[in-house]
Amino acid sequence: MAGTENSILSCDRKLPCQRCVRSGSPEQCSFEAKTRPLPVSNDESAQQQARRNSEQIRDLQAQVVQLKGLFSEAHPAYEVENGADVSQVTGCAEPCQPLFLNEISKDDQGPKDVTKSELSDPRERSPHGYYGQHALLQFFQEIPQLFPFIKDNSDEYLKPLGIHLKKEKPVRNEYKTNSHIQNKSILEGLLPCKDDADFLVSFYFNHFEQLHRVIHVPTFKRKYANFWLPNRPRYPAMTALVLSMLSISACESVSLSEKPTLSTYGNMPAQWISACDEWLRQQSSKNRKLVHYQISCLTYLAKRMNMIRKKSWWKETGSLVQNAIIDGLHRDPSTTLDTPYMREMKRRIWAVLRELDLQNAFEFGLPTLLHNVDSNVSAPSNIDDEFDEASNELPLSKPSNHYTSASYQFHSARSLKLRLEISRRLFSPGLSLALTYEHVLQYTYALTQEIHSLPPWDSGEEVEDTNSPRLRILTYAFLQFQLQQCILAIHRPYLQRDDTKYWLSENVSYQISRDILLMNSKLAGLGIQKLTFLREDLLLASLSITRLTLLQPKDSSSIIMASSTSTIDLLEQCLPLMEERYLHCFYGEPWCFLTMCAATMLAKIHVGRETWQTAKASCAQRFLDLHYRCIGRQQTALLSQQHQDSEISQIDALAASQQEYALDATSFPASEWMDSKFPDIGMNCFDLDMEFDNTWET
């Protein structure tokens, strides 16, 4: 009897059952102990033994499929053979889903029928990570037809042609070196010719610097004039600063430039960014200077313009905010140690870091360190660069309706508290009360009031700069986008509710999304829409308005469905803007264009303008045309770059043979702006090796 009990309590199989594997205790099978029947008479034993053998076979089959699934996760190239539905093979109530399925959708299937594909959905591979939280990638869950539509195009039209939808990634840390001298030579070796550099630097100041105020233009221009003087050593910080500016301008200026030589720098921004990152990595945090923050901000903006390492953007701005807090940029100094110039530049840098990190919080759906920071820094003044390092006081701030190069920062600061509070309620719920729908309506009203209070800056006042009207519209658009982004974020959870109480969320989100698309179309007419690639509003609005259209019944008489024709026409009008993003980024990002194109086609299918098959074919053909155009541009740029590199290497070799420069500190001209011996951010409180004899030197 004791032996019988032991045989009941232990698992006598050579392999543990499936539930043993899941529980992690193959030695003791508690499931079998509870479910296996006691031995019965001999006339029934044969039949029960056959049933047990059948159960063992099914369990073993389930284990094999489970092991193949685990092996597939470790080795993506592995495919499960005969990958049918596990529940059909084993009959288990809780089957283990394989990573790969062989069920390929048929051409005549509609969007609701296409639910399985060869590759698993990205949200299934990482449901709780990047794919599950990002504001854009959440649409793959909210619009179930989106991913199968893109996947069908890949399987049916792109893969047979050998086209794989993977972004070519730039080489990371290509210029790692432990020598500051080697790093200096690498930075200078990456500089383009002076004419092209002058054009790109000028383009940066005429466009991007009107938004995020990083540089004091008069100070930079004085240093830049000496930068190209022959036979004069350069500060590596100045070289890195110039390269970071070129990295931002090169991607955008090609389409607006009349200089064909600029097209040869298509692949250079990635190299410039990598070199600047490596230079920043080598710098000590003991005496961090203002120029270090300037290079860091510009390098980050260049990564956004060129779509480089986008998964690290939230982490990168968070790290910059941490460094700024360590250096005290989040607090206004209580003493007069800083000059008026330095105080204003610190405010500008803190405003840039604050805006970039808050933007990433809304885009990534993640909290920001700013939720816990008590900052008393005043907003940057609404003034142009009418001051310098020797100024004893700053000019008076201009009225809010007066446009200056700092107007974007000035007006952003006015709504910062509201936007920061909303992000805290959305992404840091542990720090605040739950966000109710009554609060959503209150925040909607407050955000709408902020949008209406933005000055149009089109009063007809005469301006000397003919480029100023375009920049005013661009500044207004960015201020509007960051407020509209908040409205879409707070209403998004209420869009797919059965309760008619939330009908306002649909109408508000529809109108906001439409306004964003119309503004992008307006900026495209002015030739400056590509500057908005610093944000993701175009794709966010496109997917939002598509989702709202698909939520409407086909026989609905709602405003959204009644306006579906004009909505699709607007999406078609904005689709070339996303094509430009793919074309003018050397490391092309196919997913942005494909996702927007797929969303447009799904809206057409919903209203009956396209069938599932014709929409797939149209989307695939449009991407193929775009892909081959991009390949042609890349080949042309590479050939031109190789020719230019050979000429530059010959010139450098000749110059090196004629003269060799000394690289010690005495070779550089005196400059507190670049020289690390003059810290301008603050003294490191942990630097215990400081020389007290020199503390009071001026």
A few lines on this structure:
By secondary structure, this protein is an all-alpha fold.
Description:
- By secondary structure, the chain is mostly helical.
- Among the domains are: 2-90, no CATH class; 149-167 and 552-659, no CATH class; 175-308, no CATH class.
- The protein has 26 helices and no strands.
- Mean pLDDT is 78; it is low at 1-15, 18-38, 76-123, 254-262, 650-671 and 683-698.
- InterPro entries: Fungal_TF_Env_Response, XnlR_reg_dom.
- One of its GO terms (cellular component) is nucleus.
- Residues 104-127 have a biased composition (Basic and acidic residues).
Mean pLDDT: 78
* Helix/strand structural class: mainly alpha
Helix content: 55-70%
Shape descriptor: globular
Distance from first to last alpha carbon: 96 Å
What is the ordering of alpha helices and beta strands? HHHHHHHHHHHHHHHHHHHHHHHHHH
Low-confidence stretches: 1-15, 18-38, 76-123, 254-262, 650-671, 683-698
Number of strands: 0
Domain Xylanolytic transcriptional activator regulatory: 202-439
Biased composition (Polar residues): 42-51
Biased composition (Basic and acidic residues): 104-127
InterPro entries: Fungal_TF_Env_Response (IPR051430), XnlR_reg_dom (IPR007219)
Name the features:
disordered C terminus, Transcription factor, zinc ion binding, nucleus, mainly alpha, DNA-binding, Fungal_TF_Env_Response, 57% helix, single chain, 698 residues, globular, disordered N terminus
